[in-house]
Amino acid sequence: MDSPEAANNAAHSTAATAATSSSESPPVQESPFFSYVNNLSPPINAFKAAYLAQGLPGLSSPHLVFRLPRINSLRETNFLKRARYSQSPSVESNQNDDIGKYSGDDNHDSKKLSSLLPGELVNDAQNDCNIKNYANTQPNSLVRVDDYLADHVEVDCDSVHSLKRDVKQSNDVPKSSVGDSNGPRETLSNFDEKNVAGEKLREPMVLSEQSEEDLQGNPSFKFEKIYMEEEERDVEQPSKEVPHLEPSLSIGLASEKQQCEESFAQNAGGGQLDGYDCTRQLMREPLQGVWGCENYDENTGVTSNVTAQNILLDDSKASQIQCGMRRRCLQFEEDTSNALRNSTIFPRVAKIVINSRAASSSSVLKSQHSSHVALNVASSKKQMLKLSQPITSLFATRCSGNSPLAGSKPSGIALHLNSIVNAVPLARVSSTSTRLAEDYMSVQGMKPASTMNCHVLENMKSCLISSNAVGEASASNEDERHDTSALRAATSSTSESPGAVEHSYLLKHIENPETLHDKRKLCSEHAESFEEFNQPSPRKKMKKSLSTSDGDGCKRCNCKKTKCLKLYCDCFAAGIYCGEPCACQGCFNRPEYEDTVLETRQQIESRNPLAFAPKIIQRVNEFQENNGEEGNLTTPSSARHKTGCNCKKSMCLKKYCECYQANVGCSGGCRCDGCKNVYGRKEEYVATGHALINEMMSSRVVEQRFDGAFNDKLESVSNNTDLLFAELNDLPNLSPMTPSLQFSDRGKGVAKSRLLSGKYLLTTGSDVTVLSSGAKYTKTSKNLESNDVLLETSKEVLAAGSFDWRMDYNVGIMDQSSPICDTDDNVCHLTTLLGPPTTARAMSISSNTRGWSRDPQAQACHRSGSLLSRGSLHWRSSPITPETGLGETKYLECFESDSRLCDILEDDTPEVLKETSTPCNSVKVSSPNKKRVSPPNIHMHELGSISSGGLKSGIKYILKAVPSFPSLTPCIDSKSSSDKTAGNQETRSNS
DNA sequence: GAGTTTGAAACT
DNA sequence: CAGTTTCAAACTC
């Protein structure tokens, strides 16, 4: 485990170089991610999803963070359910002990991390201290998420004790109140704790106390017991009252279980835990957690608080769940380090929540502690932190709490992963509404949560896998939604975002006691969305993780010379720390070297902002347009490698090929020779893309009255399509981003946005734009590959931000949350800006050209540019995008549409117009096939946009387009059409 | 388990 | 940006 000294020296030298370059402390902040996150932090920070960087290994990064959001919702539910759990006392006792142990370890780690990570970590540490005091002093106040986030071991201990007390009290609450009963139930906390401790798993435990005890004492885990408990719980609490919460809780539980297992393996060395068992436990635990959550909600009615706790717990759990999670945590490392401390932090959070709500939460805290124990938990912690941060920020406003953590922590990692998923779930949630969640919950009950956990884990482990998982997830009918969402989530590791959203919701709810009810609904909705995502994804992820992992589900690296500080290292590339299974030599990819890792990451990101982005991007069924809500089904086949492969000899039939390894077909972006990829040949892909494009174009053209000229353009475009297709592949994923969706979400209803996007695409304007964009695009595409385009755009936009997808994730979260969090202007703005993921890029671009800086919001967007760009990526993977039935066009839209969206927002154009504008944007985007799609100069001129730059023009173009749309004439179209046919459109746009 | 092959990542 | 080197995984034996 300990990195060899020699290796250390070498690593230090390397690290030192990196550190020197980037300046040590800021690594996190400096990193685009962090910067973005920080910028976005108030609203977004929390959401940072840990980003599992590379898709192949594990798609989206965003890993952990994303999960957090989900987790949060789940956690809340878990809380409730846990209350029920509280009944099983055995677990609790052990948990406490475990917590203490772990806390100690965590503290060390956390300290190190804090030292390493000046920003977030330090903040965390401080927060921890504050939290401790705070927790002690403040019993009731919801307090600051930050604080509890910051909490470290000490706090944990205290909190744990207090929690135990609380838990006991809560335990007093009757289990019977499954439904909305007000009585607080602490079983949830117990649940988590049990999971964390592992012993918890043994016994169904009941209260947090038991969980604590388990933690302390727990070396051995009995999954079977847990299962039994879960079953019992299920029986006891059939109620679906808090479906939303349940999922989150379940997730949390699952994560905890995993963590427990991990901790076990690592700490206790008890290899008893089998991957299979772990999975089971996870699955079941989530259910339990759900139950507890329900109870909790019913009893306490403090769902918001619960959510926070749950989130934390979930995070920890998630981390636990996947042995690989730790590794994944790299991005989360900061968080993880915190997480280690977090054991305390979570408890604190729980305390806070508990304080506000009563003892029930305390149990949760305990569970959190236990979970934290395992280093692996760190990842979850990070997510937690991220989630908490946003929350904290929110709370901070109220409580004035210092939530330095929120700002600092957001370090980007977390944001990554889940942003997409979150966004999607959120969208879905909004669109689908709670009842689906409820139904789903009722039917699947805890599974969703479990699945969530799995997703998270999977995401954490391998973002890349996510794409695969997505495809898998789509398999089940029931889970189709979930699957699609899961897929998206997986790809983007969106789990976090949902959680973030949930956090926001929670915060609001907390703030407004009145809204508890609403909160529950929201939570349930989120949970549903999460569940949907999670369920399919978790399973898939689990499978994938197992398959990919050596056996433990953890991927191992065998680095000899790189010290696991280069992308050669799968662990490092995936944003996770190397773990026991790794056979690496001189490994610095460990929590102890968090600083080094972060610095190195920053360096790499500085070179390639997308270096840690998921390699595999799921394409939402580009052509599937389900009007938003359901169009999501992303087929595995739709996934494509971000940059493509370069196989010369393997013919893409061996794992040497990253595409093949990721179980995705080759795309136009691949430079492979003699491609025979069984998942899809490059040629086929290109051909398909052309065919699709042609079909779309033709159909649209027909509808729009466009003559053959238009088709010609399309054809020409298609000819160029190799690149375009590649882009489209990416774009589809991006399109899923459905800037329109997010956009709409912000401005209005997500569903509307989706619908609008679809409609718009269909609308003549969209077609026209497509053509025009296509023409342009073709030009660009020649030079740039689709992937390249995306990358370029992202790079340009991001400049610093390496993890665009995180941004996306955040965006998605924001979008979702935004509606809820209307209160915060900042948040809303961010959300709005972010909402259109594509806008992010556009924003960045526009910033250069137009100067979004004008509007503070715009600036924020620009700042988050990296994120935004990421967002575009995210969106691609994000399940949300599915909405964009237009797919291709949508993708294209993503790039420009974002800018457009931003413009629209700025313009204060009527919602309708905005929406319409978004479609236009979408059209443009789609047309480009590539994100950039800078509209031809002509278009620019036509639009009258100021800037000549393609992007700029696109933005301007958008602005005009918006107004034009109302008139039904797509501005973009006018441009595009102007080139060929649409003179009318042009006139319209010009008008 | 050692050696070879392969292609990505890193470097120039 | 292209070419080369380095690296670790994948593969073979």
UniProtKB/TrEMBL annotation:
Compositionally skewed regions (Basic and acidic residues) per UniProt: 98-112
Record's compositionally biased regions (Low complexity): 486-497
Pfam families: TCR
Residue ranges with Polar residues bias: 85-97, 170-180, 918-928, 979-991
Subcellular location: Nucleus
Region (Disordered): 1-30, 84-114, 165-197, 473-499, 918-938, 972-991
A single cellular component GO annotation: nucleus
Name of the protein described by the UniProt record: Protein tesmin/TSO1-like
Species in which this protein is naturally found: Quillaja saponaria (Soap bark tree)
Organism ancestry: Eukaryota, Viridiplantae, Streptophyta, Embryophyta, Tracheophyta
